[in-house]
Amino acid sequence: MPITEQVIVKAEAKKKPYRIFDEYGLFLEVRPNGKKVWRMRYSCNHKQTIITFGEYPIINISTARQKCHDAKLMIYNGESPSKHREELVDSAAQKFAKENTFANVAESWYKRKTKVAYAPKTVKTIRWRLDKYIIPKLGDKQIDEITSLDLFKMAQEIEDKGFIETAHRIMPEVRRISQDKKSKTYHNENACGSNWNYR
Question: Quick one: 128 and 141 in the same domain?
Fold first, then answer.
């Protein structure tokens, strides 16, 4: 018998999780902490699996049933809903990793900021510093994985070549890139976003 809204609302938490079954393998799992979660048991390639659709009431009855229907179609076509979800997560993670490299964030910052915020001569100097020193050293790194040691080594190498002023000036560039309003969506607090200074 299909679940009704009234049944869901009246379902109370118990010491152990329990299930209220709907149709086609869909059920609502009521947990001891009071959460009510939509899940579905299915068999794919002779393997029993349970997939979670989300928590009620964020996922209502009709949405849960639609998700169940979509999963059944995947199974009918020989696909595993759980594997499909994992592939989507991996794809999103790869996309995020690509967008989150220092080189990507730096290019985005450069294109926006240099159009309005700097004089032509300054723009040329920033481009030179990025291409000559910063991106070759930091470009492939995830921006939230850059450490103070990475920055120190980069600055030290530049200074060892006799370019002491340049070694000091690239630090503000790195910080401005990291602290830019739009690039804040890419990273958490890290060495780039701190008030770290070279010497």
Answer: yes
Domain shared by 9 and 91, yes or no: yes
Backbone dihedral region for residue 45 (phi beyond 0: left; psi -120 to 50: alpha; all else: beta): left
Decide if 92 contacts 84 (C-beta within 8 A): no
Tens-level pLDDT at each residue, the chain (199 residues):
788 989 999 999 999 999 999 988 899 999 999 999 999 888 766 778 888 898 999 999 999 999 989 888 888 777 777 676 665 555 555 555 556 788 888 888 888 777 776 778 888 888 888 888 888 888 888 877 788 888 888 888 888 888 888 888 888 888 878 776 444 544 444 455 444 454 5
Q: Are residues 37 and 53 in the same domain?
A: yes
Domain that holds residue 114: 100-185
Do 112 and 181 belong to one domain? Answer: yes
One-letter amino acid of 1: M
pTM: 0.45
The strand order across the sheet containing 36-44 reads 18-21, 26-30, 36-44, 47-56
Structural domain ending residue among the three candidates 68, 96, 124: 96
User: What is the distance between the alpha carbons of residues 117 and 148, in angstroms, rounded to a whole number?
Assistant: 27
